[in-house]
UniProtKB/TrEMBL annotation:
Subcellular location: Membrane
Major location (coarse): membrane
Membrane topology term: Multi-pass membrane protein
InterPro entries per UniProt: SLC26A/SulP_dom, SLC26A/SulP_fam
Regions that span the bilayer: 54-72, 93-120, 164-185
Pfam families, per database record: Sulfate_transp
Protein's name according to its UniProt entry: Sulfate transp domain containing protein
SLC26A/SulP transporter domain mapped to chain residues: 1-190
UniProt keyword annotations, A-Z: Membrane, Transmembrane, Transmembrane helix
GO CC annotations, alphabetized: membrane
Example GO BP: transmembrane transport
């Protein structure tokens, strides 16, 4: 019943704000600028301060990826899985293939970008993420103590540092999950909300 506590205006407002925040956080990565910030204004401040450090090839690949995603999102609207008698068999098959590609557009562009970056790894025109440790983190209880800059913090001290965020972060997480669930429900898909909320929380903690 948790899903009923959030109205569509709240979900729409959250989704809009989240998209703006995520876009701002990635603006430096899009143009290959070596800067990181966790705040909205900080991201744009660093962007304008280091605008002269824009990487040409990172920008080209980033804009190509955006155009690819937008183009294939529009193709999806044509519903080309339907067999059309006035089309030849080859044209129908090609239409179904393109429609399937539009559904998997996110995975497709990731694969394309990975192949391009790997192909030019020697000349290094693109900034790569670097070495990533494989596998999942170990399944274990969350730590109740942590060490930062040589200082060990207890759970109570960590909670004090988080302040109001200790309540806001779970609330935002729930709203995020509910917005995804309501998006699926809007299209007529039947969902077990309780199961999905717990599943998302489990995956998010990994």
């Amino acid at each position: 019943f948790v899903i009923e506590f959030f109205s569509y205006p709240v979900i729409a407002g959250f989704a809009c704000a989240a998209s703006v925040q995520v876009s701002s956080a990635q603006i430096n990565n899009l143009f290959g600028i070596p800067a990181k910030s966790k705040t909205f204004l900080g991201s744009w401040q660093q962007f304008f301060e280091k605008i002269g450090e824009i990487s040409k090839w990172d920008t080209v690949l980033g804009i190509f990826s955006l155009l690819f995603l937008i183009a294939f999102r529009e193709i999806k609207r044509f519903e080309t899985t339907t067999f059309r008698p006035n089309w030849s068999r080859m044209r129908n098959s090609f239409g179904i293939f393109i429609f399937g590609l539009s559904i998997a557009r996110n995975a497709t562009i990731v694969i394309i970008g990975t192949v391009i970056a790997y192909s030019y790894r020697e000349s290094a025109p693109l900034k790569a993420t670097g070495s990533i440790k494989g596998g999942f983190p170990p399944f274990e209880p969350p730590p109740f103590t942590t060490t930062f800059n040589g200082t060990t913090y207890t759970f109570a001290q960590m909670a004090k540092q988080l302040d109001a965020s200790i309540f806001l972060i779970p609330l935002v997480t729930i709203v995020q999950i509910v917005s995804i669930v309501k998006t699926f429900c809007k299209h007529g898909y039947h969902q077990n909300v309780t199961f999905l909320i717990n599943l998302f929380q489990l995956l998010e903690n990994r």
